Queue: 4 jobs
Job 1
Amino acid sequence: MLKFMLACIMLMPLVNSWWAVQSSLFILTFILMLYCHHDFSNYMAGWCFNIDSLGYILILLSFWITALVVCSSQKVLKENNYPSLFLLVNIFLLFFLIMTFSANDYLLFYISFESSLIPTLILILGWGYQPERLQAGVYMLFYTLFASLPLLVSLISLYNMSGSLTLGLVENVSGAGFISCIWYVVTVFAFIVKLPMFLVHLWLPKAHVEAPVAGSMILAGVLLKLGGYGLIRVLPLFGEANKNLSWLWVSISLVGGVVVSLMCLRQVDMKALIAYSSVAHMGLVLSGLVVFGWWGVNGAVVVMIGHGLCSSGLFCLANMVYERIGSRSLLISKGLMNFMPSMALWWFLLSAGNMAAPPTLNLLGEISLIISVVSWSKVSMLSISLLSFFSAAYTLYMFSLSQHGKYYSALFSCCSGKVREYLILMLHWLPLNVLILKGSTVMFIL
Amino acid sequence: MVSMYLSSMLFLLSGSLSCLVLSLLCLKSGQAWFIEWELLSLNSSSIVMTLILDWMSFMFLGFVMFISSMVLYYSGEYMHGDSNMNRFMYLVLAFVMSMGFLIISPNLISILLGWDGLGLVSYALVIYYQNEKSANAGMLTALSNRVGDVAILLAISLFFSCGGWNFLFYVENMPIIGSGGLLCGLVVLAAMTKSAQIPFSAWLPAAMAAPTPVSALVHSSTLVTAGVYLLIRFSPALEGRLSQTVLLLLSSLTMFMAGLGANFEYDLKKIIALSTLSQLGVMMSILSLGYADLAFFHLLAHALFKALLFMCAGAVIHSVKDYQDIRMMGGLVYHMPLTGMCMNLANLALCGTPFLAGFYSKDMILEVAFMSPINLVSFLLYALATGLTVCYTMRLVYYSLSGDFNLGNLYSISDEGKIMTNPMMGLSVGAVFGGATLAWLIFPCPYMICMSPVFKMLALIVSVIGGVLGYLLNLNAVNYNLNSLKYYNSVVFSGSMWFMPFLSTYGASKNFLGSGETYQSVGDMGWSEYYGGQGIYSFIMSSSKILQVFQDNSMKIYMLSFLLWVIVLVFVVV
């Protein structure tokens, strides 16, 4: 794995040339694609790093999204808004993400997990466009830090107990007594806030709304998935405690998902709507994970990848509208089909992805998640059905309001889309719809 | 450059011909092909994309392609001059493709490709015209269909206990699953939303906001029959289940409700939509009695003449300056004789006039239904709905074709548009011969019908009564009183589809949108903030204010706090 990290470090001196970084990122992505072999559970093992199929697909996602982030943030270059620093921050973020997904030591994982917050914060504070970004940054930082400092204590106690923090060598915390349960909650809560679960999700819409397109894309595309990734890594340590407490997470996230979906129907801010819809989707991921079934964990991974591509694409679209219209409000940027007819197709395709229409990865993942959660308890059918129904409702609401009907009369004309923009959207959409043909590429195979 | 409507017509027509030939081959040899593509396999359950190619799917595909080729050709003139014509064509082609995927997939997961595709593409087609009415209709359509998608998703999760989703293998012995009843209920629910049965009927007339060629293809012959088709494939599993009984009652009610509603409707397209709804009720009800083959037969025959009827309606609307209100028409048979003939043909076929397409399927369905042990309610609904069908058809004939001339003083009505009349002629052939041909092909040995003369004549009697009533009641002149005002309440109730459009739009969205608002203000901007970011912030600020007082270097406070702690310590120690 070191070769990719070194490649990242070597990109840092190149930040003065936007194009060099851009093309190198794409080339690195394609090189990484060549390593898609699942013959062994762990490969590319080195000092503290190795990857398995789960780490691999998430690293690939990080590379992919980062390349697309650079591609879609050309406004930074055009307006000369510190483009080299911007690239540097992005490369740092990518570096930390690779480290997180390939670390085979819980402490190293923890450190890189936390370090990814810093470049994200800098992205929001540095390239966001409204004064409220300060508050949003603080929200993001403190919500996640508040939950993850206890995780450090838990990891150190694990070290104390088993004498090692290497993945797979740590002893399981047996029993479901009071201490085990507290330990369990403390450990998983950091990831649950990162996902985020309903009730601790407040940082997410704020961060998304204030972040520049790069921040939104990487946040929705990869950073939320850190939570799911962490859960997959730590949950097996707490088998019994998880069995006793999983009902809590499933209930909160499913009912919360419905509530969040209802709130989505009342959003007029495009980015807030997409952010809230992420909360609903991640709720399903969380319930699939804590149910502890093979279908659940695989569905969660597939939804993580699918949602990463799809919502990142939607944020891209929202930004393209913002760059032209200057507003994220659905009341102003409406009827856009009249201005950008070809873009409306991309809106439609990515919206279809967001509501888990076939043949997207989201559908495959959601089916697996629904299977596992319904097999766990039939009562959950109620909220799953509402969740699934409203996911279509708010996505269609967003699509129809932004694309159809009369346009805002203060608008006169705008560019209907550049090749670069269509390329970005295509590169979001293509893997989302093609990978399903061989679903096992995006699965967690031991 | 060849126009898109021509090339798609040729392409689809050749596809249709080959499908029909293959269907005949399969029918003769009894062959069927299964093709599977494994998407993924997990814990020995495989998610596969399954294609089934047997006579049934080939024949349905052939019909769909034939009708869509005619419709696309027809759109060449109907949509002429529309600035987004190519978008329209691509959407219709995408729709045909989704329908194809639906027809050839007997797998609960891979059928979603067609099923969701139909829902989404038909949404894009309904909102094709950019106005509020289309947007609302589209939302109603898409969300009603989404209920069915969700039902299929849940059914998939229950089907999991079979270890595979190729339902064709499992429908024969469904009781092996613990929750088979629930599963069947969900599948029936899904079919009911797609086929617009009560209580999901509101979307079908609303979807008439789409361009008329779309209505001809989508909302008469293909999309709405997807539910029926799913249940035809699924029907062995429904035998003797509660869901079958419920489906029988609801579909008979739909049939009656739609027939009644069509008698009070003045929008030409909505009348035809309601008649589609009524025929869907017929298909669903005979399906729930266990005669899946009859339902399939009627599905195909109905597709032919209903598409024709919609095309004629489109031609009429196109000529009368895009008015859809039948009170603005009248005497059209003198101005557009060819269209009038086709329209009449389609109408007669719909009523089940002997030896036209509808006769073979509808009459057989009625006789089989009367012969089977159904309860009185279903029987009465059947008889009434049959009469009502003829009733609204005659009313339509009076208002549009034969009645007085009601047009404005500037008009240009003609039959000259060859691009519109040619496909109508093509479908007319189907409406005349389709029924008989299908009957000979699908039922090599005829159904055994045995009933008393009264029952045998019943369909004819109610049809004649309905026809006479429908024509006479609507004859009007300026000096007549408007009798419907006397029964205002019941007229409004029957004419508005039993308030279903109101209930499924305002009634359904009011509470959800309201609670969304409440959660937003009470939850995310209320308690979640209070116990989250803002609450902690203000707590820390106020606490640090208190602490700051201690840092003011006031000797008295230091002494006081020292004393307090001593007291506390004393209590704790002692």
Job 2
Amino acid sequence: MMVYIMCFILFMVGLYGVLTRRNLIKIVIGFSIMEFSCFLFLALIGYIENGLAPILKEGMKNPVYVDPLPQAMVLTAIVIGLATTAMLLAIAIRIYKKYGTFDIRKVNELKG
Amino acid sequence: MNGMSLIVKKVTQLMSGLIFMYGLYIITHGHLTPGGGFAGGAIVAGAFILLILAFGSKVISLRTEKSQTSITESLALLIVIILAGAGLFFGSYVFFNNYLPEGEVGELISAGVIPLYNIFVGMEVSAALLTIFLGLVIYKEEVAS
Amino acid sequence: MELTPALYIIVPLLGAFLIPVIGHFVKGFQKVLTVLITLFLVVYNIWFFVTGFDAPVVTKVGGWEAVNDVPIAIYLVYDGLSAFILLTICLIAFLSAFYAVGYIKRFTAENNFYALLCLMIAGMNGVVLSGDIFNIYVFLEIAVIASYALVAFGTEKQELEASFKYQVLGGIASILILFAVALLYWQTQTLNLADISVILQEGTQTTALIFTEVLLIVGFGLKAAMIPFHAWLPDAHSSAPSPISAMLSGVLIKAVGIYALLRLFFNIFVITYEVSLVITILGALSMVVGVLLAIGQWDLKRLLAYHSISQMGYVIIGVGIGMLIIQRDGNMTIAALAIAGGLFHMINHALFKGLLFLDAGAIEFMAGTRNLRNLGGLARYMPVTSSTSLGASMAISGIPPFNGFFSKLLIIIAAVRGEFYLLAALAVFVNFVTLGSFMKFMRYAFYNSDKSKAKLKTDRLPFTMKFSMITMVILCVLMSLMIIPYFREIMLTPAVDVLVNTSEYATKLIGL
């Protein structure tokens, strides 16, 4: 149970970072932490105590495998996370080029 | 972008080939051992990124390289889609059908189409990561100048 | 060859990856290919409708058959509801792509624009077709990542800021959805929607399940921009290039937001009183607050974006009323009427709001500004734009010959017959405010004193833009035919049946 609570705490750390930091890059970092807490949770739900890697070999009798499906899901989600992070960083760098700052308080053209 | 010191250059020269080969190994053995297209592709891209960082490059040559990697990426994805779509015409006529002979478990050439997917996905991932890296580096150079 | 839903995903994906390769060498290839692809999708979709299909058509990706009724493959499910929403997506995509051919000339990097547009269409089609909750998440991310890039396409200060805001909020929504998927997998040990549905119908309502439902409502609510979660929508939709605004406002928030909510809460979860009440209240809030926020806007596209929130509120209260009636085992015909009204308003909103955004794009194309204070007297120079906007404004504010009237009427009749008098009164009230708001738009943009004569950038619109606008206004009128039973039974009734017979989705799929 403890690991799940740690996972949740990690999520909250990321959310805190996204909500309170004023620097665009730090927001992206907080965002990644949130994402990875979610991946951790996915990997944990497939874990079985003393489970083996789910690879078929000869001469195994009633082996206990960990659930491979969440691992596949985590891999897919990591690829998507990579795309989101790259996209966020690209936009952050473009914003730096236009506004000359990473401070979110100065990036306020749109209101209302 | 400037290169780094002589020590870094020499070590990179020695290591990058090995890293590249290791990435290829991970890609081609994707259906037998953990790893596969994405992990191996990331390693291959790492080898190229190391070289660019250590030896430095001019912005103009980075631009041409970026357009080449982005074309490679699209081409690899196109081949993956065509391989998957070919399943509509072979075997049991469904998308992503595994229509090649499956072979024996544990051999390098087995598992039908899956090694092909791994190879092209590896190509795509390495090209995509390089494109992202080059894009960010080019922006950095533009902002700095 | 038999009908295969996989083509809806393969064809736009092929386009998206062909364009950067061939478009790099052949000039004009990207425009032709995108238009052809979207046209093919529309024709294919209509062909599905005309030949009539025994719903649901299921494709098992990879050809893995179910073992002991436990599905293994990823399912692509094409049933009445999917067909209905796919038609909306493909139609708006075709018209937007055709419009873009004339409009997008002023931007560089046309290849990237069309490739991303194809990617976005593939993602939305995937969300609608997927019968597997994790793939809904994957395709949703494909669609929204493409839309993040498209919102920032102008790369000016405002676009970048809007895109960053959209990405942070959209990303949080995606993470919440992924978290909900993980929780759902933890509880049911399966990802297939039909399988999850069977397990959940038997089980009891646990705390973890309620937590999952809350996460899903917040996640998809953020994607659908319901009112407490709407902060990104006006910025993102007003900053994107106009054809993309039409796509985002017309179909993206429906395909990745409303459709997913409908599919999950009608067909997968057991409908509970709390969930249906929350959805109805969120819908009513969006409807009222959205239109009140729209009153004070002078930026043309921001005004339209706020109206999108408000009109989506109509869709949500329509299905919310249906959910409430199904939950208390009330009269099924009224529930069906309410849901039909909601779905009908969905396609209508896609058409008239898409048209209004295209008109806004045409105004920006010619006058160079979106600020209503600096416009006026455009009716003389832009007869096509002014007459199509008049049609769309009448449709959105519910004037009889146009489609908006009939769908709103259905929702209000259902609300009155289901004894939700407050909702009916609110719907009527919001409609009048909408009418006022669009009278302001028409007056300041087209009929006011002539301010913009000297400032016009060009004196005529490209043919493709005019063609899309005129087609859409004709479709706005034709859609009212859906109220006639014959047409209703072809398109609307199968979609409504999927939602009203809540557990039928699982029973039909599980045996296949």
Job 3
Amino acid sequence: MTTRDDINRLAEVLEIFGPEAERWPAAERDRLEALVGREEAAGKLVVEARALAAVMAHAPAGAASAELKARILAAASPEAQGAPIIVRAPESPLRRLFGSGWSFGPAWPSAAVMAASLACGIYLGASGLAQPVFDDAFTMASLDSGVEDAEDLFKEDDESNLGEESML
Amino acid sequence: MYGVEPATRAPDRELASRPGRHNQHQALRDGRLMAAVARGDQHAYGELVETELPRVVAVARRVLGNDSEADDVAQEALLRLWRQAADWRAGEARVRTWLYRVAVNLAIDRLRRRREETGTEAPEIAEPASQQRQLEDQDLAAVVNDALQKLPERQRIALTLFHYEGETMADVAEVMDTSPDAVESLLGRGRRALKKQLAHHWQNIMPDAQN
């Protein structure tokens, strides 16, 4: 490899890895460091790279505020642990209503209406007063349960979840 | 598309994701802490927040160029760590790498939404084009930040993780879900672009280099 080739490679290494020799590829480090000590043009490239790094160091990083930290710790409640982020398969409507996975508001009002309607229907049916009333009441209660609407609530709405799962 | 096909891994990426000795030690420490977090240990979680939050915030701020959005991203990344602690596979990854990856993906989502809404990637704090001539009079920090924000997002992410955060090439590749060779290419192009954009400033602090 000629000196010119080495200098070209040094320029490439400086662009990729920066001016700190300890970050350069180990296999090339000794050769390139010797080049820097030997060739003025190589030394100039390193000085330029250091000047650029010094300017880049001015980029503001800021600091994490105490308020942000407090907000995160406050939100990390035991209840929040294991909260569903991605739901892969739809669950049965009954499990959604009564199971631990339900997290979108109380389901008991709809369930109570259904139970009351059923009891009313059984009474009416047993007494033989009005079979059509039973059918109407059950239909109304089913519509009120919101089970069909709940389907949408379990859909993943945050595509940014993608990418993190492979590391879990 | 970056960060949305986590299931596919090239062979060199497997190599890149294999932790080195230092990383292995850190992964074991992370595993112990994450086991405690999975049991609901808020003290262990607080320890992770204490050590990792500043770095996650720094990465998000450099990628997004917006403090408020960066704080939101950092908060969401840290809370996902808490919520999903039970699924953590000890020894396979560092918490920091995982957090960087989540934060970077969240930041990219925001950058894309920003592009869709405004037709530009530039953050809200960017200077209007008509004021670019006044850059010389601005604070150097703002100039450098502006130059970083003008880079394509993947070059900016690679520089942020490798140059500013001091991560290894393998870890940057892991976070960016790509190969070390691809990261090298991003770093080279990114630094070359910055060198050109910031020429006036680095030449000023190196008078001998002026032509």
Job 4
Amino acid sequence: MDLSFSAEEEAFRAEVRRFLRDRLPARIAEKVRTGKRLTKADHEEWHAILNARGWLAANWPRALGGTGWTVAQSYIFEVEAALAHAPRIVPFGVSMLGPVLIKYGSEAQKAHWLPRILSGADWWCQGYSEPGAGSDLASLKCTAIRVNDANGDHYIVNGQKTWTTLGQYADMIFCLVRTSTEGKRQEGISFLLIDMRSPGVSVRPIILLDGEHEVNEIFFTDVRVPAGNLVGEENRGWDCAKYLLSHERTNIAGVGASMAALARLKQIANAQRKGGKPLAQDPHFAARLAKVEIDLENMKTTNLRVLAGGEESPVPLELGAMLKIRGTEIRQEITSLTRRALGPYAQPFISEALDEGGSHLAVGPAYAAPVATDYFNNRKLSIYGGSNEVQREIITKALLEL
Amino acid sequence: MHFQHSDDRRMLSETLGRYLGQRYPIEARHQIAESQRGWSPEQWAALSELGVVGALFDERVGGFGGAGFDIAIIFEQLGRALVVEPLLGTLMAGRALALAGGSDDVLARVIAGNCILALAHEEPQSRYDLWDVQCRAVPEGAGWRLRGSKALVCQIEAADHILVSARITGEAGDAAGIGLFLVAAGTPGASVRSYPLVDGGRGGDFTLEDVKATLITENGASLIEEAAAAGIVALSWEAVGIMDVLKRDTLEYLRTRKQFGAPIGKFQALQHRMATAALEIEQARSAGINAAAALDSARAERERSVSAAKFTIGRVGTLVAEEAIQLHGGIGMTWELPLSHYAKRLIMIGHQLGDEDHHLERFIALGEAA
């Protein structure tokens, strides 16, 4: 047992801090720190800076342009980047599609798509959920029928995807589509890469409860997709989806993001006054704050225990599910306390105050503007990626083996 | 960074686990716990022979352990077997003696298995407050005499020597002015009212009427705090061991008990409760790891980790004990089922060295002081 990081790992941490100090644009960090909207260009700028340093793809092997980091290094980077107010790395290409291509893609697919993910040539989005397939993902209906005609070997795709995060920016979408209705539901699903600019693709925004355009509906009407865009074998796309669940080991718990959010909450709780004293000294508020802080301290170690459980082996399903549940509960409790800390000043809703340079439009303290919408937005955490209720069933099924 | 125990620790843990599995089964445990003594000299001899006592102390006093994770692996196994032997008192009093220095002869006998210690610190009114010491120490010639009452001293009748805290100067609530004194069992003027505890084993109230005592230190506060920290690491890992048993037994029951034509583990309401309990046990284990790792750190880090662990163990322990009983239904209420005894011990751990409310407040206060 040794909870300390090695001298090499501490040296790496220092290197990460130097890099963040020198290369993370102050303008972007300030937007993240103050809860401003990030534009597509902001994300692309940070993505390019990381790629120039070779630090974009933490979970790819070095030979393919990844960092080749150990899990400890990935964890250190995650935490330091969050504490420095770096934008999160948009995960769809780098963290989700990349590992699937590396594991299941053909040589031609890897040679074509991986460098384009790194360079940012393609903005990827994820096409998993459908209106009738949420937590029960295997019930998805979007069809892809293989046709080999004068125009070549391709699929014709029809159907709808939903909750497509940042799909409005995307050049490409990776989709789970139904290629067979025979046998088990999971065995008729394929993993397909679709060009968003293809005729028959349309995108419709979904405005969420915070008023923001973050997710979309995507409609496919007789969309032609080259057969070469099938990843892995036909009808084996479920393997790709499951592989991601058990191999994406860092960042499930969102420890870095929670640490940054807790630091911000403490600042706000010290700045807010109740009865002439800092709110942080109110016994009820202090108790809730301490409880979530202790839970996060415990979660840091739980997370590291899972990360250290073998670099190559898959994370046992129940442990991944535990990280997801408690990690999101902690994050939600912090956003909830931050909202409560504002008292009546949680109410004003000045959308322009969330744009760059808009702080002066906020009502009440400058830090108040994004707090309530951030709280509402983060209700998603316990719903997406397999709701926390589905995760609880994963835990018990794995433990009971019934 | 890694989360494996050293080979030595793993070997001791396995040896102890094997021994307890064979020689301390639940029937034997009940017999010992319900006996007039409430502990077993034969078991004590065997445990010292295995090196269990020596592993609680460091090399400077003749042991071969004494770090947080040495304490952790031992008490985890003690928890799994629901052991009632007087190891907690020996650990805490022995740790304070080792830190104070000058008691190597006593500690050598402790490590050899020939001497058992108890820590008499808490008082009827103190309710987890380490500095609420009203028992008085008065110098007399070259020695000292003690007067006052100590409460709920675990396994005090087993002890050959009792380490007693007593106020030399100041008022109840002051950390300064608390001395530590060693009292031999049976010293005139010292009386014990001993009683059985709800979770097995025995405790006792200790009344001192001008009892002759040997001064260990006039500045005992920091030693008391460090002894309590070691005690909390021990209790936390005892609780982790107990919770692993409760989890194993409850999962087995969910698999095998049938109602409405199906194993009850098929029912979603029970699945979700079990999943939450399993998740919380992992968080509690992490809290125990954090506290064990911090035991030899500087005070601020040590005490915050220790209070975080005791808060977590108190909160999670209550949840796991109550859920284990609930998921077992009626059978979980019976004396006959070992599970109910594990549940009782787990709950009572919350009543030793501070409950979750106490340690949450303490965690907050330590943060404000930092």
